[in-house]
Write a structure and sequence with these properties.
Elements lengths: L3 H5 L5 E6 L5 H15 L6 E3 L5 H17 L4 E6 L5 H13 L4 E5 L21 H10 L4 E6 L10 H13 L4 E4 L5 H13 L5 E3 L1 E2 L5 H11 L5 H7 L6 H21 L4 E5 L5 H9 L8
Parallel strand pairs: 1-2, 1-9, 2-3, 3-4, 4-5, 5-6, 6-7, 8-9
The structure holds flavin-adenine dinucleotide.
Protein name: Methylenetetrahydrofolate reductase
InterPro entries: FAD-linked_oxidoreductase-like (IPR029041), Mehydrof_redctse-like (IPR003171)
Pathway: One-carbon metabolism; tetrahydrofolate interconversion
């Protein structure tokens, strides 16, 4: 089974795609249409997020198992420590291995309900992602990734502390980091510089949201944890009530961002798809990340 890190270390830049588990049959049909459409473009890997509990977690395991057995894609499963004992985490990791998933994005996760609420670890669970990295690595031949935050994690007191704990995740055995959403290439490049200055050569991959609608812009602002720069809002807000114009301008902005990142040598771009394929296909095509045969 190919590992994510092998796919990232080729001689040309690549892209990857992120989905979330389907909630019902209709969702599942949409998800699978998108997976099949993107499969033809040979993304480096595809990942499925891990929810706060219950059926969504089953959905992650079911979907990633199907990807591993029915597609040519390299699967990566997200996993969080939220509401899990170590025994349960071992069980999920065992399931991933059993269905052929060897790539795991190891995360602490947020408290369910209020992401900014108090983090209370499971009494027999883990407190930080670093411990989950160690657990996954101790259980077999897994390629492990972690999250990284260009503006610092919202709970971090400052960027120095944030960088210190990010680097500890790499020292614990994570081989790459995927950056949370950000607005300007410099924001990502500063994160990359901080990590390098702290002595780590782990690969960092920018997370990219195709800005197709006002909703995707709002989500980007929320997830980034930062304020959107004025120039970005000036380009998008006047088009808020014109869906076609908003989409065209949004994809131009994202294309410019990605071109700058590629020029700075990033090995890969990680697209948040919202389980749709069209915008990602368009961006990958514009950026020359699609293999010639596709
Ligand atoms: P950690 O690395 O544990 O960090 C959390 C905080 O604790 C930070 O402030 C950090 O600096 C600090 N810290 C870390 N280690 C230590 C230590 N040893 N001692 C003291 N302080 C420490 N959430 C989901 O629920 N499901 C998903 O599928 C999911 N996918 C994601 C994918 C990406 C690419 C990203 C960027 C985020 C994703 N998230 C997901 C969100 C993520 O779970 C939250 O942002 C969460 O708050 C942080 O998780 P983490 O793994 O970065 O935590």
């Amino acid at each position: 089974m190919t590992s994510v890190i092998e796919r990232l270390c080729g001689d040309r830049p690549v892209f990857s795609v992120e989905f979330f588990p389907p909630r019902d049959d209709a969702d599942e049909a949409v998800l699978w249409r998108s997976i099949r459409e993107l499969e033809q473009l040979d993304p480096a890997y595809m990942s499925i997020t891990y929810g706060a509990g219950g059926s969504s977690r089953d959905g992650t395991i079911r979907s990633i198992a199907r990807v591993a057995t029915e597609t040519t894609l390299v699967p990566m499963a997200h996993l969080t420590a939220v509401n899990h004992s170590v025994a349960e985490l071992r069980n999920v990791i065992g399931w991933y291995a059993a269905v052929g998933v060897r790539n795991i994005l190891a995360l602490r996760g947020d408290p369910p309900g209020d992401p900014y609420g108090e983090w209370i670890p499971h009494p027999h669970g883990l407190t930080y992602a670093e411990e989950l990295v160690e657990l996954v690595r101790s259980l077999g031949d897994f390629c492990v990734g972690v999250s990284a935050f260009p503006y610092g994690h919202p709970r971090s007191p400052d960027l120095e502390t944030d960088t210190k704990y990010l680097v500890r995740k790499f020292q614990a055995g994570a081989e790459f980091g995927i950056a949370q959403l950000f607005f300007q290439a410099e924001d990502f490049l500063r994160l990359r510089d901080r990590v390098a200055a702290a002595g780590s050569d782990a690969l960092l991959i920018p997370g990219i949201m195709p800005l197709t609608t006002p909703r995707t812009l709002a989500k980007t602002i929320e997830l980034s944890g930062a304020e959107a720069p004025r120039w970005l809002l000036d380009r998008l807000e006047p088009r808020s009530s014109d869906p076609k114009a908003f989409r065209a301008e949004g994809l131009d902005i994202v294309t410019e961002l990605c071109e700058r990142l590629l020029a700075e040598g990033v090995p890969s771009l990680h697209f948040y798809t919202f389980n749709r394929s069209k915008a990602t296909r368009e961006l990958a095509g514009r950026l020359g990340l699609v293999p010639a045969r596709a």
